[in-house]
Design a protein that fits this description.
By secondary structure, the chain is an all-alpha fold. The protein has 13 helices and four strands. The radius of gyration is 23 Å and the shape is globular. The chain has a two-stranded antiparallel sheet with strand order 1-2. Helix content is 41%, strand content 3%. The longest helix has 21 residues. α4 packs across α8, α5 crosses α8 and α10 packs across α13.
Length: 372
């Protein structure tokens, strides 16, 4: 039993209560149900109570937006008032910087031993990630987490599985200097690029000077900001093309909203902007109730709580397997089933899982004019 009402329950109870507040029997039944859910809630650890409260607030916001529907004018964008939004227009970026940053992104010259490039873990031909549960870094050491997709990274507020950074510039610098990633340093990298005829020439043409910390990072960030994937079927649907997605995908989207997935996966990136415990209702590996104690303060979640992660974007999720921070799920079907139990407290049936998976497949966009 969920400790708070599902969205359909809230909506139905709100509708029934309008103009009928004197119905004592209905009020008594609802009161008893609320008290039963409160008992479940009180049995949980304080940290999970806090997160469930936050989820409930998010769900109430969704209820306000969608409980009674919105009339749309002919041709109006469906996305008006929805908890998710189409990708924003591709930003105006310097094309010369994009080309230079792209060359750097794919060049192992950035790593200390010149054996790894950014694309070693973020392959643009495989969804901006690689088909490994966890990637292998410097000295053949396994990375702590599965490689998240690089596509639409400029539209994330928080970066990396721990969400440590809000700046792509700082994120890129840490990747270059991390001893298990590129393991480089500026004292090595800047002279190396300056000694390379191509880079020395290109940096002078683009920036008017030789390579430096600032312009190396600027070129990389500019390229990464260009990695957007517009024209997803679901975006076209939100913009008013009601035939862009199938009836099954529309049903999956309704489940995605009514079951509370949008409490965490919302906005134009459908995630990427908040933290969440992985295992709110149950341990994702055992389906048993989660029992970890809370960290000292909310600000310590990203660093000190091993069960708390940045909520990932679901854009292009169809092509970014394996899933989760540790790559434990190789199919969307498995991932959705795990999320239902661990994050929603629901054992989703086969039809529900298939519908949600079908909806998620509508989030795949285009890069360079081709579908990922």
């Amino acid at each position: 039993m969920s400790p708070f009402f599902s969205l359909p329950e809230i909506v139905e109870k709100q509708k029934r209560s309008i103009g009928r507040s004197s119905n004592a029997d209905a009020g008594l039944r609802i009161g008893r149900e609320v008290e039963m859910r409160r008992m479940v809630f009180r049995s949980m650890k304080p940290r999970h109570q806090m997160w469930i409260g936050l989820i409930a607030l998010g769900m109430v916001a969704v209820v306000r937006a969608f409980a009674f529907g919105t009339e749309l004018a002919p041709g109006a964008a469906i996305g008006s008032g929805e908890p998710v939004a189409p990708l924003p227009p591709v930003p105006e970026l310097d094309k010369a910087k994009i080309r230079l940053g792209g060359r750097l992104f794919h060049d192992p010259i950035l790593s200390k031993r010149q054996t790894l490039s950014c694309s070693s873990c973020h392959d643009l031909s495989t969804g901006g990630t690689v088909r490994l549960q966890r990637t292998i870094g410097y000295d053949r050491r396994m990375h702590a987490f599965n490689a998240p997709t690089i596509f639409n990274v400029g539209n994330n507020y928080r970066l990396g599985w721990r969400g440590k950074y809000t700046s792509l510039t700082i994120q890129n610098e840490n990747v270059l200097l991390d001893r298990n990633l590129m393991a480089n340093d500026w004292q090595t990298l800047v002279p190396r690029l300056s000694a390379d005829v191509y880079y020395r020439t290109r940096f002078r043409m683009v920036y008017g000077t030789t390579p430096s910390r600032d312009n190396i990072l600027d070129a990389l960030v500019t390229f990464q900001q260009s990695l957007t994937t517009p024209n997803a079927a679901f975006d076209r649907f939100l913009e008013g093309d009601t035939d862009a997605i199938t009836a099954k995908q529309q049903y999956g989207y309704r489940l995605f909203k009514t079951y509370g997935c949008v409490s965490c996966h919302q906005g134009s990136n459908i995630g990427g902007n908040m933290f969440q415990i992985f295992g709110v209702f149950a341990d994702p590996t055992t389906s048993q109730p989660a029992t970890a104690e809370p960290p000292p303060s909310p600000l310590d979640y990203a660093e000190g709580d091993w069960e708390t992660f940045r909520v990932p974007s679901l854009r292009n999720v169809e092509v970014t397997a394996p899933y989760f921070h540790d790559g434990r799920a190789w199919t969307l079907h498995e991932a959705v089933s795990i999320m239902g139990i661990s994050q929603l407290g629901r054992d989703l049936d086969e039809n529900e899982i298939e519908a949600i998976v079908s909806f998620l497949e509508s989030l795949t966009g285009d890069y360079n004019g081709k579908r990922l």
